[in-house]
Amino acid sequence: MRTPLVTVILPAKDAGAYIGTTLETLTRQFEDASALKLVAIDDGSRDDTGALMRAYAERLPNVELIRNPIARGLATARNQGLERVEGDAFCFLDGDDWMQPRRLEVLVSRLRELDCDFLRTDHVTVTGSHRALVRAPHPWRERVLVPRAAILPENESTMVDYPYAWAGVFHRRVLDDGLARFPEGLFTAEDRPWIWRLHLGARSFAVVDAPALLYRRGVATSLTQARDRRQLDFARAMDEVIAVVEQDAEAERFLPKVVWTALALSSHHLVRARRMRPRLRAEMRGGIRDMLRRLPDDELDETLTRFDGPRRRVLARVLRQAGRTA
Length: 326
What we know:
Number of helices: 11
Oligomer: single chain
Radius of gyration: 20 Å
Order of helices and strands: EHEHEHEEHEEEEHHEEHHHHH
């Protein structure tokens, strides 16, 4: 069997209502189906997700199936897939999303032509019958740049604020250089430290146009909809972002961006936590409080002066508890 051009890492849990569409689109990516290897991870599903994966394994020539009897989380499941990458390129796909035909053919070709460590793309959100294009927050297309050049400014949306692992394709050297793995055990926000490590450690990237990846919103089983214990991992993920940046030679340059992001996301999660059960809400606030204590004083004070009133009011209590002022 030929070496595949790209390995697709597809973890899913209880995605039976959607994963048939996801898998079907993988049959339409290349004229020669052997150009694609699929690593499908059934992460503790209780529905027919695993059965659908097995059915499509009979239609695709190069498939590895992994079943976790107990869910291990998206980060760990993706890492399981990374251990089985073949070929020079790999990408991620979630079980409730799908790709337009020939997306991967285009991306693999552009990756080779531009000789990049990784490529990023726009994506399309799907909410019921409504579709909307979400553009990668980068002003230049088809231009090869150093990834750390796309991190700043701190108070605007940049490529580290676009952490979606499925929005692009990656050269194998990113994996070989130790930049592709996710923090083990994180059930949410696992892509935050991952995207920072990628942009600080990789040598080259580009944003390119390609057939769309379509991202479902409002799916009941999605972590973006959940208000359970898994959401507590947000603070731990931001702790890891702080640690990644502190170890970088240009930490002083990038820490203001980390502080801005940590405060903005903390405000968002504190508002969402109002709908959690009291005990979980208290744990969420405690995790955010401890994370905020790690932020450097000067950058924190400077950032708060530029935050709008509503977000400062949301943050005020937890900042006081952390020994800071809003």
